[in-house]
Amino acid sequence: QVQLVESGGGLVQPGGSLRLSCAASGRSLSMYYMAWYRQAPGKQRELVARISSGGTTSYADSVKGRFTISRDNAKNTVYLQMNRLKPEDTAVYYCNGVVPFGSWGQGTQVTVSS
Questions:
Q1: pLDDT tens for residues 39-51?
Q2: Are 27 and 1 in contact (CB under 8 A)?
Q3: CA pseudo-torsion sign 19, 93, 13, 56
Q4: What is the DSSP string of 72-105?
Q5: Widest pairwise Cα distance in the chain
Q6: Percentages (nearest 5) of helix, strand, coil residues in the chain
Q7: Structure confidence at residue 102 (pLDDT)
Q8: DSSP reduced 3-state for 4
Q9: How far apart are CA 66 and CA 2, in angstroms?
Q10: CA 80 to CA 49: how far, in whole Å?
């Protein structure tokens, strides 16, 4: 069973940057289509970025041009570089497969506020 641990969140001012990491254990992620999701208070979880096993990426319109997803298969880790952050990016961020694995990590809180 795969375990996913997200980290790198925090409090940042609008316009700032953060880099999130998702470290996996229990299974190699290298062959999986991976994604970052986020869930804001009172809202459903949404997929914001995805990356194929070959490195092809796609993004939700709300983050396109500001967020970059990447992966390091040797480290079994997926990253999300977030630039030009906005208050509406405030949420708990999770990583998982595009077809989610059975379990979710605890997520990492991102708060964008002045």
A1: 999 999 999 999 9
A2: yes
A3: positive
A4: ETTTTEEEEEE-S--GGG-EEEEEEESS--S---
A5: 40
A6: 5, 50, 50
A7: 81
A8: strand
A9: 29
A10: 8
